[in-house]
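Q: Here's a chain of 1409 amino acids. Please give me its 3D structure as tokens.
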Amino acid sequence: MYERLSEGVWSRKWKQTRFQHQHQKQLLHFITLGILAMLFMQPQISLASQALTFTIEPQDVVVPEGHSVLLQCGGTAQVGKSGKIQPHIRWRGPDGQDLGIVGDTFRTQLNNGSLYISSVEENRGLTGSYQCLLSFDGIGTIVSRSAVVSIARLPDLNQDFIEIYLLPGQTAYFRCMIGQLQPGIKHSVQWFKDDMPLALDKLRMVVLPNGALEIDEVGIGDRGAYQCNVTSGSISRLSSKTNLNIKKSTEAGSESLVAPSFLIGPSPKTVKEGDSVTLDCVANGVPKPQIKWLRNGEELDLNDLDSQFSIIGTGSLQISSAEDIDSGNYQCRASNTVDSLDAQATVQVLVPPKFIKSPKDKSAHEKEELELECAIRGKPKPLIQWLKNGDVITPNTYMQLVGGHNLRILGLLQSDAGMFQCVGTNPAGSVQAAARLRVVQTDLDGIDSGIGITGVSNADAGGGGILQATNGVTHINGALLNRLPGPPRDLVAQIVKPRFVTLSWMEPKKNPVEVVSYTVFYKMNNSEREQKIVTKSHDDQQVNIQNLLPGKTYKFRVVANTNFGPGESSEVLEVLTQPEENIAGPPRNVEGHATSEREIFVKWDPPTVTNGEISKYRIYYSENESGAEMYHDSTSLSAVLSELRPYTDYTIAVVPFNKNGMGDTSNEIKVKTYSSTPTEPPNNVTLEVTSSTSITVHWEPPAEEERNGQITGYKIRYRKLKDTPQVKSTPANIRYFELTGLERQSEYQIKIAAMTVNGSGPFTEWNRVMTLENDLDETQVPGKPVWIGIHPGGDSIALHWGPPLQHEIKIRSYVLGWGRGIPDENTIELKESERYYVLKSLESNTEYVVSLRARNIKGDGPPIYDNIKTRDEEPLDIPAPLEVPVGLRAITMSSSSIVVYWIDTTLSKNQHVTDNRHYTVRYGISSSSRYRYHNTTDLNCMINDLRPNTQYEFAVKVVKGRRESAWSMSVLNTTYQNVQITPPRELTVRPDEQNPQNVILKWLPPKHSLGQITGYNIYYTTDTTKRDREWSIEAFAGEETMMMLPNLKPYTTYYFKVQARVGKGASNAPFSALVAYTTAPSVVMQEPKPIAKGISNELVLYSVAGVGIFLIIVIAAVMVVVCRRKPQSTPDHNKKRYEDYSSYQNVAIQKPPDLWIHHDQMELKNIDKNIHSSTPVCSDGASSSGALTLPRSVVHEYDVDTPVPVTNSLDKRSYVPGYMTTSMNSTMERPQYPRTQYNISSNRSHMTVDTGHSQQSLTQQSGSMAQTPEHPYGYEGNFCNAGYPNGGGTGASGGPANGGVSTIESSKRGHPLKSFSVPGPPPTGGATPVNKHTPAVTIRPQNQSPYKKPSFSAATPNRLQGGSSVAHSNDEIQRLAPSTSTEELNQEMANLEGLMKDLSAITANEFEV
């Protein structure tokens, strides 16, 4: 028993102890969370640098002239662990130069560093701003805030003699000091009457803070001359006299009514936070007007005991300890029964700058990019400047101001080390904070200067880590030295634009497996500041470098990084960025201000860089940030924008134009037009008799676009029939007003107008209503409201209603109920004067039932019901869209990255973004509906982390504030296959000895390739700025590494590069290094060298020609024999195999005229025989803006299923593009801004050619839309012939002839009409005749074009342009049919087929004997 009790006691104690521990643990947890929450709720304020700090800074001083001044300054420097040391102190004077204390008779620097000015005198350069500078060797210099030394001056006094005439009982106001008072100066004011000191009657007289005297309820005894005496220190000054005259009073009630008029109205005030401000307002009228104050149209509550607002005198408003929220427009309203009058003034409370985030000390390595953060708040927004060692930093290419507050330093140098200060200044004051920057010197492209490299000795071989320390110097273990990678190879610039360059390279030969990333170093030529970009992984072997300058030479190099150090640097690549147009720079100092409610005056200074004469300036302006953009042209340096909307914010920018077009845009400014009186009266005005002596007026404000300013109130005029009208005014934030003190059973007329600070708008028409004879009855419940109006929103319902018809029944309130599907789930009681209410926080797209009933003491009256459904969502104020970016291009860089760039037509030709716009790139797999997004402020970006061998779809839009454009047209491109192949090596170019215009290219095959090399592409051009697809291309199959290019232009520089093809990934392999070669000035003819002794070249040529002629004669004879043996009519002729028919047809075909197809007009033109201007090509499936095609000098002999990885915004055209075009010398030009065309079909038809098919299979597969009576303008689906790998032209082995040197004259070049397929075989039956004259591809005639030149004479009809088919008789068909008795000839024809393909063209569209 005892054990059980003891066990139970211990168990309870243990549980209690555990509970206490848990409780304490929870309490500690809550306390910790509370502390963390408090820390997170505090504003993020960082500590400034402690390396060099001020202990005391100089302050502003105002002294009488001749007095002395002491400006104090002190600071400390933190040097290592030795403690704080007194830094060197010097002063900077008002002229911005350091003070030379020696020889200065007025200024002396004391031992503690303070500056003493013995006598402050005018015109000696002693007044102005002073700054204290702290310096310490090895740390830097910092500058204090500016301390202004000024001489005290008396304010300007009223010097105008004024006569004042007032009635007894009115208010008198006497001015004293005018203008802005000097801060920091105390003045004493004393008033005199008739040259005697005035004894102030505190009940009627008050001296305002500005020294003015106000006397209320003036009488005869107040007549006299008044003047003030202002004293500051030992200086006094008198104002001029103001004479007060009192008129004779008339009998009570006989004086005429006078509308209010202001003796003094409020003036704009600007005060610092915490100061007090007074707005003067004194008005007279008959009867005496009542003064009310409003802020932004709402009446101020002056009766609140905690209010900081108070009335001084008869109507002046004083604001004590002004805060930021007290800024706004204040209206003084004077009203009596005659009229009401407003006077407005703006109060701006300045908030001194305060740090949100101050810069911190930082250390960084050379060549790195660093950003020092600084965030300062204040009102107005502080101007932020950065200083280095006391000198202001002017933003440049390498030191940039980010977001207007952070400092970004690119390519750090050792000389960048020092003290950096962030200084924020506004009219309320200034703040500064400093940070120390240490730059660590680096060796070997990334290793600290304190790290060396040592070899491997016997003592440390086989031991030690990566880094070893000896005598304070860190060394790399010598065993790892051999594991460092070598230099990256084949660094090339794939894309070169004015402001960005895209680089690619290959991995190092030495130790590539050790590479974890790459560092790209780049700098402008002749510059010491080198910047760097580090890739994310070793697979990233391309980078897009942005923010370059146009027309500048940059040097690039790449270093491979490992986990234990960087490798060797690649060779330096020099790239000249493309130049930009010589356009004008941005206009400077753009300013604007409103001149009226509908006009804004804008002026500016000319650009610093004009690049010629400025022809005009264009001023772009738009309402707010979402309005449509408009413009106004001016030839001067100013302009007036007219026909604007009153009280509207306008965003304005100026753009210059010179002979090269639009220049850079200036900075945007915002200007607001003045307000005006409303153009429309209030809406929905209703009158309600609330008693026998009162009427309530209800209304709604004018429409937003008709207000023309901020509504400050409403003016109500009312009168009994034929009596003088009376006026009541209301604040702007109410919608009803009760007129009281009316006569019983009398008809009243009432009208109302809206007011702004500019005055009253138009009144409504007179509305009539009659008061009741007796007071309202409350012995019965009220009736039903006569009507209820409902306006639904997305999450709200606005209601307004009319009172019951029984006006004689008293109504004390209204009860409003609502619910989802049923009434009165929720109820609210409203005042009996309410006629408008908004139900908020409702569910969208939901049915609600609303009820409304009137209530008095007797009870609730009958309700009125209505049901309404809220909207799906609130209608949005859709801003005007921006223009869609055009010319979107997507260029594949690797198996995981694609570079995208585009054109913004709203920018200048230089495409330089100067405003706050950014671009959003949308991309995703083309077969998927899921997208990813990338934001950039440049007009280009590199999209990484893509899948290999995957087609992606890209689109872009521009965003600027609330405005944005629609998505651009989509472009498609496919990432490379993950094929590991290196570029061809050691490309050389040499001239042909017989003809210098022929060049011979030789190269070495790629060192690494996982697949078999099937051929090479030779790219050459005279303009390296062209994209790859615009270069001329020679392509051939085989493994030969030499090729001859004939007939190049004389004395022309050509650029060559070679690309290997591996299977279908032909366009995915990298290029060799670029080689330039200049051809000879002219062709030098040489004597032909004999092939062998006694045998000349001419003899060989004659022999070959003779053999060819003999073979042709033999073949012709054989054909004649065959034709004669053919029976005249044999049904078996129709059973001849199509293979024989096709082969037979290819022998004696008549060669048609050479043609080429213009891909835009689809018209036939004569083809030029020049090799370089009429070489046929095959399209690779990638179209471009303006329907550009890829010029090539030969036809592909490899599978073209894989498209060339360069596309643009017109990749989704639905029409069939031209597949033949001229070469790079064509006169067709790409438009400056590519036209756009929307995506019509997401499934494009792709036309491919299998090189393994014979001509027979090509013919059988042709005809994606064959020509039929229903489709007279049909076309074939196979537009390109890939060559004849199984036939002649390359020999049996398919390799190139001429000893491995491929020539254009061989089978590498197809016929210009090879894209026309051979007609199909005749039908097996003879019932249906075959139209042998129907072409395989029929082109719609273009004779209606005035620019069309006919290709044939009028006497010879063109069958390709004819619209109808030509019928043939059965005899003709049988004569044209192949013979069935020529089986023995088939083998011979097959053997001669290769030779015939070299001697005749195989593209005819008919066969004739």
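Q: Can you summarize the key feature?
A: The mean pLDDT is 75.
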